[in-house]
Hints:
The complex is a heterodimer of chains A (111) and B (114). Chain A contains no helices and eleven strands. Chain A has strands at residues 4-7, 10-14, 19-25, 31-37, 43-48, 52-56, 59-64, 69-74, 83-90, 100-101, 105-110. In chain A, strands 2, 4, 5, 9, 10 and 11 form a six-stranded mixed β-sheet that branches. Chain B has no helices and eleven strands. The model of chain B has no long low-confidence stretch (mean pLDDT 92). Chain A binds chain B through residues 31, 33, 35, 40-45, 48, 86, 88, 92, 95-99, 101-104, and chain B through 31, 33, 40-45, 48, 55-56, 58, 89, 91, 93, 100-105, 107-108, 110.
Amino acid sequence: GIQVEQSPPDLILQEGANSTLRCNFSDSVNNLQWFHQNPWGQLINLFYIPSGTKQNGRLSATTVATERYSLLYISSSQTTDSGVYFCAVLNNAGNNRKLIWGLGTSLAVNP
Amino acid sequence: DTGVSQDPRHKITKRGQNVTFRCDPISEHNRLYWYRQTLGQGPEFLTYFQNEAQLEKSRLLSDRFSAERPKGSFSTLEIQRTEQGDSAMYLCASSLAQATDTQYFGPGTRLTVL
């Protein structure tokens, strides 16, 4: 099955700093999503981005499907950005709807 | 649109007891998913429904686990004869069957089996 690797596993930033999170996947996908899990456990969908680039405020994401990776950029980080960032993928051929998740990048933003 | 809701938010039970969780998806969403998440891991897929049909089940879903979505709206996940290894966060998500199929998650039910 598809393998998803995220890096770095842990990241500590000072408020205002920028960062880049990476997601590598082992096979072709037609669905890739980035999620943020806050310290209370709520998963928030950030981007649906199987290819191309999207931006939403201080966050942007780029997926290069042919090279099997995706990047999540966080600019001017804030303490509320703390939590775990997950990348999840699937190849939804047929009835397959099983998202495959990475282990996440745990981000702590210090004031 | 009130988002995906789950009930209860927390459940503490003794080993051997049965528990049932409920998920109410976003109202127009016809796909509903159940996941399990343990500490330090990403969510693990358990099962998914399109309308009332259960279309896929993970091998993680042992005989003690059953999920239903009888009217294609809310869903229940029941765990019979709970074991300590069942302790986890149980997450529900829903999506609208379309090209993007973006999944939206509820707050989860945290189960502790003593």
